[in-house]
């Protein structure tokens, strides 16, 4: 997912997505807002089937 799309999602959650914040940090804040563990890019395997970030996360490693 492109950073512009991530920033748009962040705005809907009232999350700071200003320039200078990393994609990973913004996504982790979104994960927290969604009620998930802030695990983007930290696990070798994902046990969340409905995670919006699953594809990007597995490409991030």
Uncertain runs are: none
Strand content: under 5%
Over the alpha carbons, how many angstroms does the gyration radius reach?
Answer: 11 Å
The structural class is mainly alpha
Number of helices: 3
Mean pLDDT comes to 89
- Helical content band: 40-55%
Number of strands: 0
Overall geometric form: globular
Number of domains: 1
Biggest beta sheet summary:
none
Strand/helix succession: HHH
How far from one another are the termini? 15 Å
Describe the 3D structure.
There is one protein chain. The protein is mainly alpha-helical. The chain has one domain. The chain is built from three helices and no strands. It has helices at residues 3-12, 23-34, 54-60. Helix 1 (3-12) packs parallel to helix 2 (23-34). The chain is globular and about 30 Å long. The two termini are 15 Å apart. The model has no long low-confidence stretch (mean pLDDT 89).
């Amino acid at each position: 997912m492109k950073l512009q799309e991530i920033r748009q999602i962040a705005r809907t959650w009232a999350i700071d997505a200003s320039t200078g914040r990393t994609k990973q940090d913004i996504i982790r804040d979104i994960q927290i807002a969604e009620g998930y563990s802030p695990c983007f890019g930290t696990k070798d395997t994902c046990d969340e089937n409905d995670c919006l970030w699953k594809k990007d996360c597995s490409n991030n490693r």
